[in-house]
Amino acid sequence: MSTTSSLSVAARAAIPRRLTAPAIRDRKRGEPIVMLTAYTARMAELLDRHCDVLLVGDSLAQVIYGLPTTIPVTLDMMIAHGAAVVRGSQRALVVVDMPFGSYEESPEQAFRSAARVMQETGAGAIKLEGGETMASTIAYLTKRGIPVMAHIGLTPQAVNVLGGYAARGKGNAEYSGIMDDAIAVEAAGAFSVVIEAVVEPLADSITEAIGCPTIGIGASARCDGQVLVVDDMLGMFERNAKFVKRFDNLADRIDTAAEAYAASVRGRQFPEAQHLYKA
Ligand code: KIV
């Protein structure tokens, strides 16, 4: 069996070192941070050289499992996909989402869950949803060796409290509440903050106000980085949130390829000679 330790010095030097949470934190006001979600080893392999961060998002609920919300996602699901993404990548920092119910009860519960994620996946950090309410948990985890990416603004795990996925920060109270969230999670030690679906001036003010990088999704082009769900960006779904830009239309291309395959099978044109084993 070949292992990394059996590689020559030159071959080992050719393997890029993985980005770390502190390296991402140092990117404040530097080169924009490129982040996409990934859920499988092969997708991680394809995205790795383009991305600084691969997020194993609990959006795998809808993207992979066809679930209506992220609420039913379990820690075991996140660990299985997190480990696959770590196996498929070499350079990007892998961040794994903490699923609903695995961290909100107490800092101790969050530590137990996050420690499992770090030990069983090899990921470099976790992400959790929540602002001021989660600040003591973020501080607890960070002081115990677990880098935390915070997620504020529209927090999809709170869909049943929020009543939907509408943009946030439109009224004065909500605007200043989300600003307070950003300040609290940074003070608690978060190495970066995802800001989802908030009005643009709020995203800009947060990016100005806090010392760690902001990563926007439906926020502002002036955030310190951007993230999208990879399947949205590839055009895999018919309906998308306003903030999604499709960089391809993979759903149509898959449809065309499947149609061609089906026609070849039905017409007995596939398999051809080069696909067959000789006796
Ligand atoms: O779960 C997810 O994919 C996310 C991103 C949308 C930020 O949290």
Give a structural overview.
The chain has 279 residues and is an alpha/beta fold. It has one domain: Phosphoenolpyruvate-binding domains (TIM Barrel, Alpha-Beta Barrel). The protein is built from 12 helices and 8 strands. Strands 1-2-3-4-5-6-7-8 form an 8-stranded parallel barrel, surrounded by 5 helices. Strand 3, helix 6 and strand 4 form a beta-alpha-beta unit. Helix 3 packs across helix 5, helix 6 packs across helix 7 and helix 9 runs parallel beside helix 10. It starts with 8 loop residues before the first helix and ends in a 13-residue tail after the last helix. The model has no long low-confidence stretch (mean pLDDT 95).
What is the structure about, briefly put?
The protein is of the alpha/beta class. The chain has helices spanning 9-14, 21-25, 41-47, 60-63, 75-88, 107-121, 135-143, 159-162, 172-188, 200-209, 230-233, 250-266; strands at 33-37, 53-56, 93-97, 125-129, 148-153, 192-196, 214-217, 225-228. 40% of the residues lie in helices and 14% in strands.
